[in-house]
Amino acid sequence: MRGFSVSFILIGLLALSGCGLLMPRPDPNQAWVDLDPAHASRLHAAEVDERPWDDRRYFQVPPGAHELGMRYQFEVSGDDIGLDSQPHQRDCRLRLRYDSFGAGQRYRLQAGQVGFRAWVKLYDQDDRLLARGQEMRCGGV
Residue 62: which of 27, 19, 96, 15 has the closest Cα? Predict the structure, then answer.
């Protein structure tokens, strides 16, 4: 009987911890910003309008102008550095400002890099480019 109750408690704890992995339902009165699914493990939501953002998986903002802060981690290939060089890990802070977030609209952030430099772009739900962000600072991991 004791084994059953311990198993039951463990299953309950696992279920509760899994709830944190579920994405919240978007608020129709706000704009929802997804992070590029191809780089979701390397692109993280960090702040909105210079205030910390608690969930690194997405942004949700009221309509209007906002500045989004992100963290993007990537590896620079040794081939891009020099002969016989080891890959180099980069950790960059990115910012993107967009003035027209709309209530109930969905957006997508896409990040990437060219050599040591990172970039980020904002797209609407029809994959139209709306804004380009800028790299604020980068360092090694």
Answer: 27
CA–CA gap between residue 107 and residue 109 (Å, rounded) = 7
Instruction: Give the pLDDT score at 80.
Output: 53
Tokens 């993280």 — which residue? 44
**Pairwise CA distance, residues 87 & 116, whole Å:** 11
What distance in Å separates the CA atoms of residue 84 and residue 23, rounded to the nearest whole number? 43
Using alpha carbons only, give the angle 72, 69, 118 rounded to the nearest 5 degrees: 35
Taking the C-alpha atoms of residue 103 and residue 32, their distance in angstroms, rounded to an integer, is: 8
Average pLDDT, the chain: 83
Q: Is 3 part of a structural domain of the chain?
A: no
* Domain, as residue range, for 121: 25-140
| pLDDT tens-digit series, residues 23-65 | 889 899 999 999 976 665 689 999 999 999 999 999 999 999 9
